[in-house]
Design brief:
The structure holds two protein chains of two kinds. Chain A is mainly beta. Chain A has helices spanning 2-30, 214-217; strands spanning 53-57, 60-64, 69-76, 85-89, 97-98, 106-109, 120-124, 134-141, 146-150, 158-161, 172-178, 187-193, 200-212, 220-235, 241-250, 253-257, 263-264, 270-271, 275-278, 284-287, 307-316, 322-336. Chain A has two helices and 22 strands. In chain A, strands 9, 11, 12, 14, 18, 19 and 22 form a seven-stranded antiparallel sheet that branches. In chain A, strands 10, 13, 15, 16, 17, 20 and 21 form a seven-stranded antiparallel sheet that branches. Chain A has a five-stranded mixed sheet with strand order 2-8-7-4-5, with no helix packed on it. Residues 35-47 of chain A have low confidence and may be disordered. Classes of the chains: A mainly beta, B mainly alpha. The interface between A and B is large, with 51 and 60 residues.
Chain lengths: 337, 184
């Protein structure tokens, strides 16, 4: 009897151990490895490996004549080896010519010149079928960029830009300079309350020390923008996230560059809105009088009105939520020809 | 060992054959701690991660978007898994078994192996071997997808090691309590 019970106990322990081990392995695989949870739906047939992808960093780059540039290829989901072939287009991407000897994971030009302006670079991995080739755009200027930046955020240097257009419900908001905890040092903390009857709220801010006058300083060629964002706290319930975009104010109109998806959800500092080589067509009218036919909006030419730069923060959440987020290392570089 | 303790110990031993589970308090406490830890890990996924495509876990809209764990959020699940399953395994082993610490080592190694399998240079060949060895089975497919779609992170490695060490510490700290239970 006693021997039977001991045998049964050992058998049960063995069974439990096997079940625990199985569940442990299932839990690991089901975790998705840091992605989504629980054997997620596949974006491609699960019987096939995921499609290989390749990217070039940076996808856009502006450089001064004589300065070096480096493009780096990042391939994933491929075991085709790591032999690359870089090619170059001088006709806006219609045709590409292979660059002889450029077969490494990065491609560099020791000193760019105006002949490189507008060039596009493509990289492929021989043998890797790509759904979409990776491309990077290079803009070159002979004139050093005019840099406006703020990593200190003195309250007197910034104003809230009135927005009267499409969404008149501005969230309750407050701004505060925090001495430490930025990336690094001081940063600007903002708190938005999501208005009732909405799921989002935005506020545009202008830097008072960032006026560029095309008439006096020259026509704008492209603009580089960068900022760091952190999503600090949410007091409420439901999902939330923060978006950030570069804003230009010119002649009573507000323009927004939202060609990228600058989402900020983590409580750690991240460069979320960085994008180089923004042209006039990368901005859209966000607020102000409609643009007339043939009118440049915004006007980057030498006859354009003075422009001021800032940023627009949009938060998404549940009405009544109070959302805290931060900005640091705001930087706009205006490049002329 | 005192005479009284010997007598108590002998009494305990004599009872071992009478029931299937005479260490229910030890098993229960280890399972409870493990489940609590797992619940914490699950909460990370429900609040801070996109589970839109999840088949096992329903999306809980009311929880989505909470930032409950701050900077620990990205690595907490990697800590929780070896911690919880080391305790579950130790609970399933016989009381006082020296293998309980081996359980921590086992789950640490398993987690490290799965994490390293996500390393870009390893994941694609590994997935190929899996699919080649096990054919187009759903298990091979799921494991392949785990390696191919997961993200290798050194922080996860550190968290997995810490989780296993923490489990060993818990086992070490609780051992005298169970021994006194057993002796009484």
């Amino acid at each position: 009897m006693r021997r039977d019970l001991l045998r049964a106990r050992n058998w049960i322990r063995g069974l439990v151990l096997a079940v625990v081990t199985m569940l442990g392995l299932v839990a690991i695989v089901g975790s998705g490895g840091g992605g989504s949870l629980g054997f997620p739906d596949c974006g491609w047939p699960c019987d096939e490996p995921p499609p290989p992808t390749i990217n070039i960093q940076p996808p856009y780059l502006t450089a001064l004549v004589g300065s070096p540039v480096v493009f780096k290829a990042e391939a994933s989901n491929s075991d085709s080896g790591r032999l690359y072939q870089w090619s170059r287009s001088v006709d806006g991407g219609r045709t590409y010519m292979d660059i002889v000897g450029a077969t490494g994971p990065s491609y560099s030009i020791a000193a760019v010149n105006l002949g490189d302006d507008g060039a596009m670079f493509q990289v492929k991995v021989p043998g890797m079928p790509l759904a979409q080739p990776a491309v990077s755009h290079l803009a070159v200027s002979a004139t050093p960029g005019v840099v406006y930046e703020d990593g200190d955020f003195q309250p007197a240097d910034w104003i809230v830009l009135p927005i009267v257009g499409s969404n008149p419900i501005r969230p309750e908001h407050s701004e505060e300079r925090i001495d430490s905890g930025g990336n690094p040092g001081a940063f600007r903390k903002m708190v938005f309350g999501i208005p009732q009857g909405t799921g989002s709220g935005y506020v545009a801010y202008l830097s008072l020390s960032s006026t560029f006058d095309p008439g006096a300083q020259g026509a704008v060629y492209v603009i580089d923008y960068a900022e760091d964002c952190t999503s600090l706290l949410r007091n409420g319930s439901g999902a939330m996230f923060t978006e950030s975009d570069l804003v230009i104010e010119q002649g009573g109109r507000t323009y927004l560059s939202d060609v990228i998806t600058p989402i900020c959800v983590q409580p750690t500092w991240r460069g979320v809105a960085s994008r180089s080589s923004l042209r006039a067509q990368d901005f859209r009218l966000f607020d102000g009088p409609a643009c007339g036919a043939g009118e440049a909006c915004p006007d980057f030419s030498a006859s354009g009105l003075p422009m001021r730069f800032g940023y627009l923060r949009t938060v998404f959440g549940v009405p009544g939520d109070s959302i805290t987020h931060g900005i640091d290392n705001w930087k706009v570089t205006v490049w002329r020809r | 060992m005192s005479q009284a303790a010997r007598i108590q110990r002998a009494g305990c031993t004599s009872r071992q054959g009478l029931t299937l589970f005479d260490d229910s308090r030890r098993v229960g406490s280890l399972a409870a701690i493990g489940c609590l830890a797992l619940a914490l890990g699950l909460l990370v996924y429900l609040t801070e991660r996109d589970i839109a495509g999840a088949a096992l876990i329903p999306s809980v809209a009311a929880l989505a978007g909470f930032q409950l764990f701050g900077a620990l959020g990205p690595w907490l699940p990697s800590f929780v898994h070896p911690f919880a399953f080391s305790l579950f395994t130790a609970a399933a082993l016989s009381p006082g078994s020296a293998w309980r610490y081996h359980a921590c080592v086992f789950w640490c190694v398993v987690n490290l192996a799965f994490e390293c399998g996500q390393y870009p240079l390893i994941s694609a060949p590994l997935a190929k071997v899996l699919q080649g060895s096990f054919g187009p089975s759903s298990t091979a497919r799921m494991v392949s997808n785990y390696f191919l779609r997961g993200t290798f992170d050194g922080g996860d490695i550190a968290a997995a090691v810490l989780g296993a060490v923490a489990a060993a510490v818990v086992l070490r700290l609780l051992q005298p309590v169970w021994e006194s239970d057993h002796a009484s």
